[in-house]
Amino acid sequence: MNITGFPYLGRMNMKTSDRLAAIPMSGIRKMFDLAGPGSINLGLGEPDLAPPQAAIDGMCEASRAGKNKYAPTAGIPELRNAVAERFSRFGPLTGQNIIITPSGSTALLEATQSFVDPGDEVLVPSPGFVIYAPHAKLAGGIPVEYRLTEGDFQPDLEDIQAKITPRTKMIIVNTPTNPTGGVITKEIRDALADLAADRHIMILADEVYCEFIYEGKHESFLPYLDRALVVNGFSKMMAVTGWRMGFIAANPECMEALIKMQYHVCASPNMPAMYGVLAALPGIDPYLDRARQVFRARRDLITKRINEIDGMHLMPPRGAFYAFPSFDLKMSSQELANRLAKNGLICTPGSAFGGYGEKHLRFSYAASEEKINTGMDILASTMKQLRGQGL
Ligand SMILES: Cc1ncc(COP(=O)(O)O)c(C=O)c1O
């Protein structure tokens, strides 16, 4: 296609890189394009709560006070120290172990760009968050999917062991997980850490949902910084997805590499947003208690509604804000999600999260109970209709 006024367009070699061309567009975004007006959207992975007021005030005050310039590449020391203090309940940390990043997504990208070489294999969870495999590919690596067990969605250790080769460089682990809501047990966390040490494979742990656990407790990889990088972020914790604020915890050698990478990616994180997070973080617990209360009630509602539907099954998700039920129709998750979109309900097909995600749908319950109920009415009637047709 040519555009009037751009005579050279089409004659220039503006072909995208092979690395980018090898990556499909996210299956989550594709579903949003299908949304008609008035659709119920249970596809969004962002809290619908307001951020803590202290965060907004802190950011605005910092900006008004002239803090609008580049920051130190690893982030302002006050925030690095505050993060270390809050998360040292999981493992020994100082501010020197923390780099503030422009989002959890960027943290994950910087981690793979810093440690994955062309030809390295990266074990990624399946079903798993949609950017892990693309990030491995963008670094020239080869993503290899490992299975999460059905129902409780734990990393399948036997499958991981079977897939380790001399080229395996990194295992990505996510707890609590998107899309399943699974929360890793202490036994599996420790076994993975031992396996990583035995086989000299680094772990990249994504813990961005660690504050959203409704049963059990968070088993962080922070005690294992000798073999793991731990990514976390403020998007979900403070409902500030638009601020793009995250962090990585790492040992001093890895930290040096990450700071070098971040300098070349963005020079520094967003200065006023760092002050906003800093203003809210020390007093965040009452806010999080309330958020967990809201999400737990929604989780109970969506679990009950889904399990009332013939042909669908869901074990109560223990963390994050996603439900990932299985279904028994003779159609793919993409076909079922398309049918639901036509009937006014947006969700994400399980296949968007990897080869082991098929025969599932992902619903985000970061939405009001009213929306969840209306969405579940559409799901129930669509399932009934499809089963009636013998599908
Ligand atoms: C598992 C997981 N990790 C990381 C992220 C990235 O979050 P952000 O880039 O907003 O910090 C998300 C966002 O949905 C996620 O679900």
- Cross-sheet strand order for the largest sheet: 2-8-7-6-5-3-4
- Characterize the main sheet: 7 strands, mixed
CATH architect. name of the largest domain? 3-Layer(aba) Sandwich
Number of helices: 13
CATH topology of the largest domain: Aspartate Aminotransferase, domain 2
Count the beta strands.
14
At the fourth CATH level, what is the homologous superfamily of the largest domain? Type I PLP-dependent aspartate aminotransferase-like (Major domain)
Give the names of the bound compounds. Answer: pyridoxal-5'-phosphate
Indicate the radius of gyration in whole angstroms.
21 Å
The count of domains is 2
**Share of residues in helices:** 25-40%
Structural category: alpha/beta
**Overall pLDDT metric:** 96
What is the CATH first-level class name of the largest domain?
Answer: Alpha Beta
Low-confidence stretches: none
- C-alpha geometry: globular
Portion of residues in beta strands equals 5-15%
Describe this structure in words.
With 391 residues, this protein is of the alpha/beta class. The protein folds into 2 domains: 18-50 and 286-386, Aspartate Aminotransferase, domain 1 (Alpha-Beta Complex), CATH 3.90.1150; 53-283, Type I PLP-dependent aspartate aminotransferase-like (Major domain) (Aspartate Aminotransferase, domain 2), CATH 3.40.640.10. It is built from 13 helices and 14 strands. It has helices spanning 18-21, 27-33, 53-64, 77-87, 104-115, 132-138, 157-163, 186-199, 252-266, 271-280, 285-307, 333-342, 369-388; strands at residues 40-41, 98-101, 121-126, 142-147, 168-174, 202-206, 228-233, 246-249, 312-313, 322-323, 326-327, 345-346, 348-349, 361-364. Strands 2-8-7-6-5-3-4 form a 7-stranded mixed sheet, sandwiched between helices. Strands 10-14-13 form a 3-stranded antiparallel sheet. Strand 5 (168-174), helix 8 and strand 6 form a beta-alpha-beta unit. The longest helix has 23 residues, at 285-307. 48% of the residues are buried. Bound molecules: pyridoxal-5'-phosphate. Pyridoxal-5'-phosphate (PLP) is lined by residues 45, 103-105, 129, 174, 178, 206, 208, 233, 235, 241, 246. Pyridoxal-5'-phosphate binds at residues 45, 103-105, 129, 174, 178, 206, 208, 233, 235, 241, 246.
